[in-house]
Amino acid sequence: MTVFPFDAVLFDCDGVLVDSEPITNRVLAQMLHELGWPIAADECMRIFVGKAVRDEISLIEAHTGVRIGEDWHRQFRQRRDEALERELVEIPGAPAAVRALHHTLGGRIAVASGADLRKVEMQLDKVGLADCFTGRVFSGQDLPRSKPFPDVYLVAASAVGVDPSRCAIIEDTITGATAGVAAGATVFGYSPGGTDPSSAHALRSAGVAHVFNDMAELPKLLAQWRVAVA
After folding, report:
1. Which of 192, 154, 157 is nearest to 173 (CA)?
2. In angstroms, rounded to a whole number, what is the distance separating the alpha carbons of residues 34 and 115?
3. pLDDT tens-place string over residues 5-50
4. How far apart (Å, rounded) are the C-alpha atoms in residues 178 and 185?
């Protein structure tokens, strides 16, 4: 019998499990317009995907001349979450892939995101995946350092009791892939096409082991990984 080559799988959330980035960045672009930065939604995606808005406050202030306080950030989160509640859908194939890997690995899967924990948990609940990750959802914003540092992936690996070197990480951005590689895991890049942060070339440059474009293929891809690299 073929032995599954990984002891755990750690997922990013935005852009990997849920199709949230276009929604979030549309709201962000609208709010930046209101501050005086006339940025298009696609340009907003290019700059901000894979990054926490809180970590880019100096950039926003430089473009707008407006000091960004907690009230603005709170309003952004509220407007973002309202839009996500209305519009969010899963990445095609992600729910079935998650449940298959949850079964194969006896529950040793986790989410490690750079987004705030409330948002991540809300999104997983909305697409019906919360039960697969009970007690194993982690946010880099709860740690001193978020992605591209490896900390959130190291915490997630520890929580499932697996050495990072025995983990597969599923990422879609340079920032996240850099974090996964730094954690010592095998990183798989999901690149369905579209924004620059999830381009196959960008992910390979960040050190991912393999780039794929269909989440439905993930369980088979991971199961056959030793064959693929032999």
Report:
1. 192
2. 23
3. 999 999 999 999 999 999 999 999 999 999 999 999 889 988 888 7
4. 11
